[in-house]
Amino acid sequence: MVTNATSLGRSGLFDWLVQRFSALVLLAWIAWVCIGVIAMPEFGYPQWRALFAATPMQIFSLITVLSLCAHAWVGVWTVTTDYLNEAHLGRTGTAIRLCTQAACLLLTLTCLLWGARIFWGSG
Amino acid sequence: MSRKPPANILSLASQTAAQRKVKTARPVNLNLFSIKWPVTALVSITHRISGVLLFLAMPLLLYVFEMSLSSEAGFRQAGAMLASPMPRLLCWLLAVALLYHLIAGCRHLLMDIGFGETWRAGKAGARAVIVLSALTAVLAGIWLW
Predict the structure, then answer these.
(1) Theoretical Cys-Cys bridge with A112: which of A69, A89, A90, B78, CB 3.0 to 4.6 Å?
(2) How many domains would you assign to chain B?
C-alpha cells in the first residue's frame, strides 16, 4: 500500500506493537530514575552521575533512547498522516505531509544519536 | 475435477469486495467544529497534543540532561536555569504533558489487554485520566515551587 510508505515497519500491526513495547520501556525507565532520585540520601551531582554511570543503566538508557525515538516516530507518523493530507489541505497535502515528516525524521534521528552519546558516554 | 476454488475462498473474496465498497462509500466529515466531543474524544486529542509537544521538547530535554551529567558546574547550571521563573513554568508544562501522556497511555495499555472497553467504562476511564492528571499536575507544581 502506497499510504504505508512512511510508517516505521511497513505494517500497522508492527507499528502498533512497537508503540506499546516502547511505551513500557519508557515507563520502566522513568519509574527507575524517579525511584533512584527519591532513594538518594541527598540530591547532588555525584549521586546523579552515579545513577547513570553503571553499565546496566547505560544499556537500559540506550534502549530507552531507541524506544523514545521509535515511539516518537510512530506517534508523529500517525498524527501527520491523519491531519496533513489532501482531504484536509487540498492538493498540496501530500507534499506538506512529506516535508513535515522529513523534518520530524531529522529531529528524531538527531535525538537518537545525541541521546545515545549522552547516555552511553555517561560512564 | 472442478477448477473452481473452494467455496470458502469465493465467499472470502466477495466479502473483501463488499468491504471495499463500504469503505469507499464511507461518509467523511472534516469540520471538527460541527462534530460532538465526548469526554473520550477530548482525552484522545489531548493525548495527541501532549505527544506532539513532548516530541518538540525532546532536544530541550536532552540539552538539560547533557548539561546536568557533564560536570559538577553543568549540574549546578542546569539547576540554576530551572530555578528562574519562565524555565520553571516551561518545566512544569512539560511535566504536565508527560504525566498526562503517561496516564492516558496507561489507559490505552489497559484497554489493549481488555479492561474498560465498553462505552461506560471508556467514559469512566477517560474521566479518571483527567482527574489523575490534574492531581499529578498539582503535585508537580507543589514539588517545583
Answers:
(1) A69
(2) 1
- Structural domain contains residue B32: no
For this complex, say whether ipTM is above 0.85: yes
Domain tally, chain A: 1
CB contact under 8 A, B30 and A88: yes
Closest-CA residue to B103 (of B81, B131, B124, B122): B131
Question: What does the pLDDT read at residue B135?
Answer: 97
Write down the mean pLDDT value for chain A.
Answer: 92
| B70 domain residue, yes or no | no
**Closest partner CB to A75 (pick from B51, B71, B112):** B51
- Residue B13 belongs to some domain of the structure: no
Q: What is the pLDDT of residue A6?
A: 81
Q: Is B28 inside a domain boundary?
A: no
